[in-house]
Write a structure and sequence with these properties.
Elements lengths: L1 E9 L3 H8 L5 H4 L3 E6 L7 E8 L1 H4 L1 E11 L3 E8 L3 E10 L2 E10 L2 H4 L8 H28 L1
Antiparallel strand pairs: 1-7, 2-3, 3-4, 4-5, 5-6, 6-7
Helix pairs in contact: 1-5
Length: about 150
């Protein structure tokens, strides 16, 4: 199981960040690995989303079907089960001069690549995921800035 958490302090309000993160159509702009999303109709527990993840040359693009949900203007999540169990969480904590954004990504490679998961270089995978989450946090910050300037 891979579990990576990253944080970023930003001068933007939690509300400005919420406007970016609570819209599932922004997923491809936030996470570079997501190339496209198909958005379903809002249901009792959230919005069904099919996220088209690009896993590179070896595995190609795979569609992760899951549920996108928001909670109390402070939590956003995407939970998918196939082809790779993925749990992505975003938490916003207002601070005196801005907001602390926490991004968490959990997934299990064994359901995706089977026994080959044991041979995966976990240190490298965690570092790559950490780098991707750091970049995603920067993108959210920029998107919130652009939204407040327009």
């Amino acid at each position: 199981m891979i579990n990576v958490t990253r944080e970023r302090r930003t001068a933007h309000s939690a509300n400005a960040l919420w406007n970016v993160l609570s819209d599932p159509t922004n997923l491809p702009r936030v996470l570079d690995r997501i190339k496209h999303v198909d958005i379903g109709e809002l249901g009792a527990h959230g919005i069904p989303v099919k996220a088209h993840f690009d896993f590179g040359v070896v595995f190609g693009v795979k569609i992760a079907e899951g549920l996108f949900s928001t909670h109390h203007h402070h939590h956003v999540s995407f939970d998918a089960h196939q082809p790779l169990p993925i749990v992505a969480r975003w938490t916003l904590k207002p601070q005196p001069n801005g907001t602390l954004i926490t991004a968490q990504l959990r997934f299990d490679l064994k359901d995706f690549v089977g026994p080959l998961a044991r041979m995966a270089p976990m240190v490298t995978v965690r570092k790559d995921v950490s780098d991707e989450l750091d970049e995603a946090l920067k993108r959210v910050d920029i998107m919130a800035r652009d939204q407040t300037q327009s």
